[in-house]
Design brief:
442 residues, alpha+beta, Jelly Rolls, eight-stranded antiparallel β-sheet, 24% strand, disordered N terminus, GH16 domain-containing protein, transmembrane helix
C-alpha cells in the first residue's frame, strides 16, 4: 500500500472535514521534536523525554544503514560478480543449445508397406465430407471417382492417377476432386514417394502429407509436398503442431530455406514451421525435368494412354524420415535418385512386390532438403498416428489467398468464379504416383 504524506500550510483543514483551528493540535516547529515515548503515567501531564545519555539505536547486521563504506563496496562487488556469472552461464548454455544436434546415426530399415500397382487405391479411404479448409471443392467417394475417371491405375499398372474433374462447366457447388487417406497409420518410419507428375494451375491447392485427422494438431502434421496455384516458387515442407515445438536458433543441416520457425498452429495463422525448396522441387519445372507430362491440354479420357506412354520412365522421389531424433525430407530428381532407393522400391507392371533384400540408408544420402531436429521439439510426443494423405483442393484458405492467387501468380478474377466455370484450366491438375513405400526401423 502506498503511504500519503501531507504538509500543513497555514490553517489547511482539507484533511479534517468540519474541523476548526481550535480543535487541532498545535505543532511548534521551533521546538525540537522528541520521541513521544510510552503513555504518561496516570495523573501526570506529560510523558518522559529522551535523556541526552540514551543509547543510540543499533542496526541489525543485514541492514545496509549500519554498514561501513568498505562493507558496502564489498557487497556491491559480490553482487556484480554474481550477475556477470549468471549472464555468462546463460550465454554458454544458450550457445550449447544452439550448437547441439541430434544423433541421426544409421538405422536398419525393413519394408513394411507398399502402395503400388493395381492395388494402389485399395489401401486408401476416399474422404467425401465437407472440406475442413473451406475449399471450393466436392471430394467424391470411390464409386463416383471411378465412374468419373478421377482415380485410375494405368493399363500397365505402373502408375496411379488422381485428378480434378475437367468436364463440368458450371461447378456451382465446387469442382469435384479426390482426397485419399491411408487406412494404415504410423508413429515412425521411412517413407518413399515416387512422383511422376505434380498438379499445378490457377486455383489449385494440392498436397501430399501425413497427419492424424482425428487428433489434429495434438498428433501433428507433416506436409511433405504442398504448393498452390501455379507453384513456380517450388515445394514447401512444413510441420504443424500444438504448443511446445519450434526450430528457433537450433542447428540444422538442410539445403532449403527456413520460413517460420514456430510450429505451433496458433501462431502466424497456422503457417507452421516450413522449409522452402527451389522451383525444381515442384510443378511445371519438376514435371519437365522428368516428373511428368507437359504439353497441350487433353480431354479427360485421353489422359490414360498419354500418361501410360509418357510417364512410365519418369521419376522424382521425395523421402521422409520420421524418427525420435527428428524429421528429415529429401528430394531427388530422376538423375540423382540413390541406388538403394531404386533397388528397394523396384517393381514391374505385373509384380508389385519389392526387393526386400535391399534397404534404403538415409545416412548415405547427403544433406536433406528440410531438417527438423528434436532440439526444441519432442518429435515422439508431437507426431503420432500419421496417415498418408494425397489430395487436390481448390481455392480454400491457401489457394484463394490474395497474396498468392492475385499478387504472386496473377490468376484471373475471383478464385471461386474461375474454378466454377473454367474446367479446361485443370488438364494439369493431377497427381501421378509410381508408388509409396514405407520402411520401419528394426
Amino acid at each position: 500500500m502506498t503511504s500519503n504524506h501531507y504538509s500543513l500550510s497555514g490553517d489547511d483543514l482539507s484533511r479534517y472535514p468540519g474541523a476548526t483551528t481550535t480543535q487541532l493540535p498545535k505543532i511548534d516547529f521551533d521546538e525540537p521534536l522528541h520521541h513521544a515515548g510510552p503513555p504518561p503515567p496516570p495523573g501526570t501531564g506529560e510523558g518522559p523525554r529522551r535523556s541526552n545519555n540514551a543509547p543510540v539505536l543499533e542496526h541489525r547486521w543485514y541492514d545496509p544503514r549500519g554498514w561501513s563504506t568498505r562493507k558496502r563496496l564489498l557487497v556491491a562487488a559480490g553482487i556484480a560478480i554474481v550477475i556477470i556469472i549468471a549472464v555468462v552461464v546463460g550465454a554458454v548454455e544458450g550457445t550449447k543449445k544452439s550448437s547441439s544436434y541430434p544423433d541421426y546415426s544409421r538405422l536398419n530399415y525393413e519394408l513394411v508397406d507398399t502402395y503400388a500397382g493395381a492395388s494402389f487405391f485399395d489401401r486408401f479411404e476416399y474422404y467425401s465430407g465437407v472440406d475442413p479448409t473451406d475449399g471450393f471443392v466436392q471430394y467424391v467417394n470411390k464409386s463416383t471417382a471411378q465412374s468419373l475417371n478421377l482415380t485410375y491405375v494405368t493399363p500397365d499398372a505402373s502408375s496411379a492417377v488422381l485428378r480434378v474433374d475437367t468436364a463440368d462447366r458450371n461447378a456451382s457447388h465446387g469442382r469435384r476432386s479426390v482426397r485419399l487417406e491411408s487406412t494404415t497409420s504410423y508413429d515412425t518410419g521411412l517413407f518413399v514417394f515416387d512422383i511422376r507428375h505434380s498438379p499445378y494451375g490457377c486455383g489449385l491447392w494440392p498436397a501430399l502429407w501425413l497427419t492424424d485427422t482425428v487428433n489434429w494438431p495434438a498428433n501433428g502434421e507433416i506436409d511433405v509436398v504442398e504448393t498452390n496455384n501455379l507453384a513456380t516458387e517450388g515445394n514447401a515442407v512444413t510441420l504443424h503442431t500444438d504448443a511446445g515445438c519450434n526450430m528457433k536458433n537450433v542447428k540444422r543441416h538442410q539445403t532449403g530455406t527456413a520460413n517460420f520457425v514456430t510450429c505451433d498452429n496458433s501462431t502466424h495463422s497456422n503457417a507452421g514451421c516450413g522449409v522452402q525448396g527451389p522451383p525444381s522441387t515442384y510443378g511445371q519445372e519438376l514435371n519437365e525435368n522428368g516428373g511428368g507430362v507437359c504439353g497441350m491440354p487433353l480431354p479427360p479420357l485421353m489422359l490414360v494412354p498419354f500418361l501410360f506412354v509418357s510417364n512410365q520412365q519418369k521419376q522424382q522421389v521425395y523421402a521422409l524420415e520420421l524418427r525420435d531424433a527428428g524429421i528429415r525430407t529429401w528430394f531427388f530428381p530422376r538423375a540423382a535418385i540413390p541406388a538403394d532407393i531404386t533397388s528397394s522400391t523396384s517393381s514391374t507392371s505385373t509384380n508389385t512386390s519389392t526387393n526386400t533384400s535391399a534397404t534404403p540408408d538415409p545416412s548415405t544420402w547427403g544433406t536433406p532438403l528440410a531438417d527438423f531436429p528434436n532440439t526444441q521439439c519432442d518429435i515422439a510426443a508431437h507426431f503420432r498416428n500419421q496417415s498418408i494423405i494425397a489430395n487436390i483442393d481448390l481455392c480454400g484458405e491457401l489457394g484463394a489467398q490474395k497474396q498468392f492467387y492475385t499478387d504472386l501468380y496473377h490468376c484471373p478474377g475471383r478464385c471461386v468464379d474461375f474454378v466454377r466455370s473454367h474446367p479446361d484450366n485443370f488438364t494439369q491438375a493431377y497427381w501421378e504416383f509410381a508408388g509409396f513405400w514405407v520402411f520401419r526401423a528394426t
